[in-house]
Design brief:
The chain has about 140 residues and is mainly alpha-helical. About 55% of the residues lie in helices and about 0% in strands. The longest helix is centred in the first third of the chain and has 18 residues.
Length: about 140
């Protein structure tokens, strides 16, 4: 309700100003010139944090904003980062950021579980070496 009252008051004031004072001042200072239109912006500005979060979500879907969009939305003064060079070949896997530390523990648990599961089919007095020999030569020969 308050926003609509503010908007209607601003429209009324601006319109009366445009029909009287603006015309008189323009004719006095710039004869035969077209008078400008004066208005007040009463809409609240968009929250750029919400827009940035939305842009981030869209970029996770694989879309990239254009430079024109960035300039129109966030203003001038931005330049695109240079692409980071590729890691050297054979240098191992890149170091994961701290938020991925829990993945290592999950992977370790899975590997331990698989190792436990691999022993369920081994006969009681059989070593892993003899089992590997059976697997290599074929199950029927054991």
């Amino acid at each position: 309700m308050q926003a609509s009252v503010i908007k209607s008051d601003a429209d009324l004031i601006c319109e009366s100003f445009n029909q009287q004072v603006v015309i008189w001042l323009t004719e006095w200072n710039f004869p035969y010139a077209t008078p400008p239109r004066v208005w007040r912006k009463t809409e609240p500005e968009e929250d750029l944090m919400v827009r940035a979060e939305r842009d981030n979500k869209i970029s996770t879907l694989g879309y990239e904003p254009t430079e024109d969009y960035i300039r129109e939305t966030y203003g001038d003064g931005w330049k695109k980062k240079a692409d980071s060079p590729l890691p050297p070949m054979g240098g191992g896997s890149p170091e994961l950021p701290p938020e991925f530390a829990e993945i290592y523990s999950l992977t370790q648990k899975r590997a331990n579980h698989r190792a436990d599961c691999n022993h369920w089919w081994m006969p009681p007095n059989t070593s892993a070496q003899s089992t590997n020999q059976c697997m290599e030569s074929g199950w029927m020969s054991c």
